[in-house]
Design goal:
The chain is an alpha/beta fold. The protein is built from nine helices and eight strands. The chain binds adenosine-5'-triphosphate.
Amino acid sequence: MTVVYQVKPVLWDIDLKIPKGVLMAIVGPNGAGKSTLIKAMLGLIKPISGNVLFDGKPYKEQRSHIAYVPQSGSVDWDFPTNVLDVVLMGRYGALGWIKRPSHDDKIKSIEALEKLGMKEFADRQISQLSGGQQQRVFLARALVQDVDIYFMDEPFKGVDAKTEKAIISLLKELRERGKTVIVVHHDLQTVPEYFDWVTLLNTQIIDSGPVNVVFTEENLKKTYRSTGQILKR
Ligand SMILES: Nc1ncnc2c1ncn2[C@@H]1O[C@H](COP(=O)(O)OP(=O)(O)OP(=O)(O)O)[C@@H](O)[C@H]1O
């Protein structure tokens, strides 16, 4: 797959296979195309060439099995809706638009909020939360969707250490339930501890595979080369 904004290629000749059931980080410098890769996989951006298949089928046939948690701050939450309703929206895929959420849907939604330490905010307007709190609500919504594949764009951005721990244990729980979780991640230090699979990206794929094979000093140098960005490990 190749993606171009105006005339500049931001993803170049991407050839990537992601096995089912991995917890994978997409790692690379600022502007490497990480968010673009996720958006192109989800059909939000059209590549100039190439395509993406989920289990052999295009996104539009698989969308009910896929959830996306965008970067916090990338959604304008001006409309009046409370936290519980945002999470309940995650159940609509399972419900169809006509059915009203059941008692069970509400219980599942409240449980998800509790897991992310947001239960006491259930009645709060979503616009009245901090970025990190909104992020946790998004994650709770993704959890109740009960899909097979999760895409998350920097879920740890702007959250405190305690929330980061809660999020990673939740991601690991999803993997244990056989889900595939794909995460744009910035903190190189935590990659080996959090993830079992990694894709190194800088416009092109530098390497992709098991963390213990791919996440090497040499590959990281290649990924961050010529960016002038500091490589901290
Ligand atoms: N809608 C757009 N129109 C034009 N250029 C864009 C657009 N969105 C992103 N870009 C450019 O494409 C490149 C890749 O952006 P992208 O957001 O995918 O990178 P990223 O790896 O997620 O970066 P970061 O780590 O900083 O979030 C950047 O140079 C960015 O400026």
